[in-house]
């Protein structure tokens, strides 16, 4: 079985994400980049498929050459090889453009299953996995909190607000996973060392047959018209207990209003 | 030195820092209060290849220099001394076995230790034989295909939780040449473990006596296949063991500095953070200086070891200086925290209790001075 785990480089999730006013994208030079946290879960799922089914797992990253440490980081968990699509024409792509690049890259590779994270920590659209499946004409099982491969089909528990549905699809298929799916392991020191020498193939848009006009800022279907910094956190409400029980009532009302209960 | 590490060692330290911060630090108090060895954390160290860093690739190790090993032990000890010291002791036992084993024994006994599938321990001291290790009386008597072990080994770190012990016992009357080393596993018939000692600190690191009563240890577990090598094994292991404890002490000093620095920046008196009061600021300055000096000495000693120099003197210096520094630094951390420092709401009081242990284990600091003084009398000027 061949599995592809697409991963993303994102700005450090703990820091601010300044927007460059000129092209209205995140100013990546001013923040540290990290492997998207949700990818730790999709990578772990890849490692488990490797352990259970002997799957050959390849990392796929769309991003500039400077994102290579992120590819190596992904490989350090024990995956086999990596493909990176790097092309200046990709800059400024929206979710659809990104999906087009990934879909074309996948067409140039052999695979049975693609395991995405359900959403990236920066854009949080949740659109790319389903869009890729649609462009490729294969089934998509999104928001999986459980994944199993049984012969030539994938079975997933698709998470939603009231629980989950058991869904299945024949391979090849695209899956996206949520953080509840597993408990990711740490990479091992030898894994980190081995990652440096694992095969990494860098491809351009031309290599995978993408029309440059269909991606990048020019090919974007979405347009950002305005942006503003996140407002500062508002002061909290202090509920004081005067011994009468009114505080408990106030607290309960607040929790009900906020739909915590 | 820490700022000029090769790339692979920087990656290693990042891995360890992340693990220590997210997986280790949050569970320290629960293990300490339960007086329980954090075996799941040790298992994770094994899965991350951290339990055999200095050993040959042939036995599953990573062939990393002891400078890197010291920094790893320091970082883990900074989060949880019982775990950092556990790793140090495990490496000490593994080193002794690996270094003196026959090829067949190495293949049989070392890989499980290197991979962290087994936890190692080291049994040298006895109730009547501590600093004077050659005064040991535990006996191993050859009886056909086995050695029959009798006697008590004391102060064994990981006693009762280890899987494999490096045990010294007497096979002959010669004070040092009559001592042999054995590889004894936890399921050894005739070996029992006494209840752990009730200590001042490091409650998550059990210290217990091993009691041998006519225990039949197969003769192929005589380390090196030759009697009389035990004292050499013990002494060769001790240099590394002392460096390990010194690295633990640097981690503990750093932890004390961390908590004191944080507290002094937040606590306000007379309208400003107490770190801005010179009396407190100077305490922190001394703590940081001492910690950095200890770290530098430990790394310098480890570097010499990596380059094949005799490190007996400098390892003793590192152990002496770093553990005395930890005692001073942790005492001052309690002082910086004031009233909060003497409560169990903060870890400062625990650090202080733990530092005292480090001045005593792996050769008391008086013994370290003796080692240094003797080497000055007979060896080179520096």
Your description of this structure?
The complex is a heterodimer of chains A (261) and B (382). Chain A is α/β, with parallel strands linked by helices and 261 residues long. Chain A has two domains: 2-219, HUPs (Rossmann fold, 3-Layer(aba) Sandwich); 232-261, no CATH class. Chain A is 27% helix and 26% strand. Chain A contains seven helices and 13 strands. Chain A has helices at 37-53, 68-75, 95-107, 128-136, 189-195, 205-208, 246-257, and strands spanning 2-7, 9-11, 19-20, 25-26, 33-35, 56-62, 81-85, 113-117, 140-150, 153-160, 163-170, 173-177, 200-203. In chain A, helix 3 packs across helix 4. Chain B is 52% helix and 14% strand. The longest helix of chain B has 37 residues, at 230-266. Chain B starts with 6 loop residues before the first helix and ends with a helix. At the A-B interface, helix 5 of A face helix 1 of B.
Report the end-to-end length of chain B measured between terminal Cα atoms.
Answer: 21 Å
- How would you describe the shape of chain B? globular
Sheet with the most strands of chain B? 4 strands, antiparallel
- Percent of residues in helices of chain A comes to 25-40%
The largest sheet of chain A is: 9 strands, mixed
Total domains of chain A: 2
- Oligomer type: heterodimer
Spans where pLDDT lies below 50 across 5 or more residues of chain A = none
Query: What value does the average pLDDT of chain B take?
Result: 96
Helix content of chain B: 40-55%
Q: Mean of residue pLDDT of chain A?
A: 92
- Pick out the low-confidence regions of chain B: none
Strand content of chain A: 25-35%
Q: Could you say which overall geometry of chain A the principal axes of the C-alpha atoms support?
A: globular
Strand order of the largest sheet of chain A: 11-10-9-12-8-1-6-7-13
